[in-house]
Amino acid sequence: MKVICFGPGPAFKGGISNYNTSLAKALSAFDGVSVDIVSWTQQYPGIVPRDFKDRVSQMNFLEGTQIRTHYITNYNNPLSWKATARLMADLKPQIVIFQWSIAIQGLPIGNMIRQLKKLCPCEIILDLHFVIQKEQSAIDRMFTKMGITRADTYIVHALKTFEELKTLYPGRQFHLSYDGLRSAGKETTVIKLFHPIYDLYKPDPNFDISEFKARFGLREKVILFFGFIRKYKGLHQVIEAFSHVAASRDDVSLLICGESFWNTLDPGNFMTRIKKTVFGLAKKILLRSSDDESNYKPLDLIDKFNLRDRVVVFNQFIPNEDVHKYFQVSDCVVLYYLTATPSGIESLSYNFDLPILATRVGHFPETIEEGVNGYLADETIESMSATMEKMLDQPLDRHGVAKMKASMSWHAYAEAILNR
Asked: Looking at beta carbons, which pairs linking 322-327 to residues 24 or more positions away fall under 8 Å?
């Protein structure tokens, strides 16, 4: 069986690239299954002022596999969309899985699916990381329908996403499957799965945790915020809540690791200035003012709350080979998001048997069992700081996290897709 995973290849930064790569590896582990990754060369309109390529990691996630990666699809070149569909059809797949993670990609993805359906009798699966986008612009709904309408099958990672899908298509009949079995009738199958536990990153048994803590001034207990710094991830809430904890105890540090999402290009570069100007105008037209992140600077709160000696910051993209260090020195991971779809950081944390502190939003109440693999906070700073205190005073047995993650493997995920 030939399977194609369409999405960003391992040359790109971020969770969707890691996800697409992990999925390809999991599928290729089955006997008789051959997998190709078909990837973007550029994922977004050229005016977006951000570098999405991973230019620092040395680790090759596909080493030792037979998976081929084809970098071909340029968002800004419609001819490449047609070439992508032809390439996929020439590979003669039985299944093509598209990663759906942002509405603006609806134009090229919808076009490629429409062409592919003419060229190939394969099953087209949309792996939905969202339906209703976090930042709801005026045209998100249009782009979403343009991109995902023609799928034969959908995958969702949370029941909330399934409800959003039904809202988007109120006249459409859906069959909800928990094991990958497709509907034999006219209903469209929606496979309810989960965000699998990442196994791309592994703990290093020889890593010296004490030395790392001493070198960077980390205290006995460490709360970790990891990943791109985006407004919806609520780092401003994390820092403010931590300030209350730091005021009452001196045994804990906050460790912040990740690059500021909209600050990856040289600000003095002429093309960067042009992109930021044009992109700023586009945001004013398409985004609500509350969703604009241009002035989002949560790290400034470290000095506001006088936390310079209690917070350690690595404000940069973390190379793949260094990721394990930050999780191994930490006691828990904090996800005080404003809104949430299934989180790659949550999945990554479980791979290191770390419990989660999260707000009671989005899918988190579905995946976090209070007192087993984490604690949930209400959407107030008081509740968030109290939940941090609870984790510090009542640390969770990591065996509870390990036990829960056993049912969220990539093997089980791929098995449902292949319907085996």
From this structure: 323/201, 323/348, 324/201, 324/202, 324/203, 324/204, 324/207, 324/352, 325/204, 325/207, 325/212, 326/224, 326/226, 326/255, 326/257, 327/201, 327/203, 327/224, 327/226, 327/351, 327/352, 327/354
Q: Say whether 209-405 and 2-156+158-192 share the same fold.
A: yes
Query: How far is residue 245's CA from residue 294's CA, in Å, rounded to a whole number?
Result: 29
The predicted model gives 285-290 an average pLDDT of 53
164 — phi, psi (to 5°)?
A: -65, -35
Please report, for the chain, the start and end positions of each structural domain, with discontinuous segments joined by +: 2-156+158-192, 209-405
Closest CA to 164 of 362, 327, 399, 307: 362
* DSSP codes joined into one string, 40-58: EEE-S-TT-----B--S--
Which amino acid does the sequence have at 237?
Q
- Residue 114: pLDDT over 80: yes
Token couple for 108: 């090229």
Q: Which residues contact 343 (CB under 8 A, 6 or more apart)?
A: 15, 195, 335, 337, 363
CA distance 84 to 36: 13
Q: pTM of this prediction?
A: 0.84
- Look up the CATH architecture of domain 2-156+158-192: 3-Layer(aba) Sandwich (3.40)
pLDDT digits (tens, 9 = 90+) for 335-351: 999 987 777 899 899 99
pLDDT digits 0-9 by tens, 25-40: 999 999 999 999 999 9
Topology given in CATH for the domain delimited by 209-405: Rossmann fold (3.40.50)
Residue with tokens 């917070």: 311
Considering the chain, what is the average pLDDT of its residues? 90
Helix (H) and strand (E) counts in the chain: 15, 14
What phi-psi label fits residue 278: left (phi over 0), alpha (psi between -120 and 50 degrees) or beta? alpha
Find out whether 403 and 373 touch, Cβ atoms under 8 Å. no
CA neighbor of 343 nearest in space, from 181, 234, 417, 180: 234
- The separation between CA 160 and the C-alpha centre of its own chain, rounded to angstroms, equals 16
Decide: residue 107, CB within 10 A, 0-12 exposed, 13-18 middle, 19+ buried.
Answer: middle
